[in-house]
Here is the input.
Amino acid sequence: MKNGFVIFLAAFIVAGTSWCAFVLAPELQLGGAKQVSVLNTSDVYPLNRPGEANQGLQVYRANGCAACHTEQVQQTGVTCDVVLTSFGKNTNNVVQAYFKINPPKPPSNIVTIIIQDPPWTIFTNLDKDKADDYADKITAAGGKVETHILATGADISRGWGLRHSVAEDFLYDNPVQLGSLRVGPDLAGVGARLPDMNWQLLHLYAPQSVVKDSTMPPFRYLFEVQKTGDSPSPDALNLPKEFAPPAGYEVVPTEDAKKLAAYLLSLHADVPLYDAPFTAAQVSTNAPANKK
Here is the structure.
């Protein structure tokens, strides 16, 4: 065993290096993470989840929701739009500058373009350098413009988020439920795109009642079927006939169901940050086609 100490030392170094890489380094990078400023505002992000939503995170975890859903929007890049906000004092100069950059084809399109009132998106899908160049030329002609930044990528196109997920999004989550498999859609922004408590509860009880082809299993054990009293419970679900209980009965959510729905509604990774910029005014948060 002459080499016993050498083997022990090598194993210790390997284990120590792994610990530093997977435990110490993330702690040094994220352990002191704090709220950050929302881009171009005095607001801070994120805000702590309300108590019911925070408890709902534990219900989400206990029911294994992260096995089928992620909470990490991916992004492949950004694109820029140039928006004319005012023609200024000389509309003709601005129009001429526009047509120097973008000659009309055919000429009959000129009339259609000129009659558009600001705000008017005059250039789309540009890289930042070209957007700045075009904006400078319109500004030099007397117009006023804004350059809007838009995140791009498959997840963005699906309506799952407005920009890629960053560490700040998970500051108050314990544990963080990133997930690794997408049997269902990403949920990082589900509270912004589906901000209806009743919809969330219906989806939990009978997914196909709100999404016809949903493959999500029903979580009916989070609800109670009870006899309808003299008047229906204010919490009773308004279910379609094919999913409703027999006459004289109603379905009401348990506290765990309400907490889980509150957690889902609290998922709003939808503000622009320094390390995840976008121009919010140009992006719609509604994506009804992606209700899955």
Observations:
- Residues 77-152 form a domain with the Ribosomal Protein L30; Chain: A, fold (CATH 3.30.1390.10).
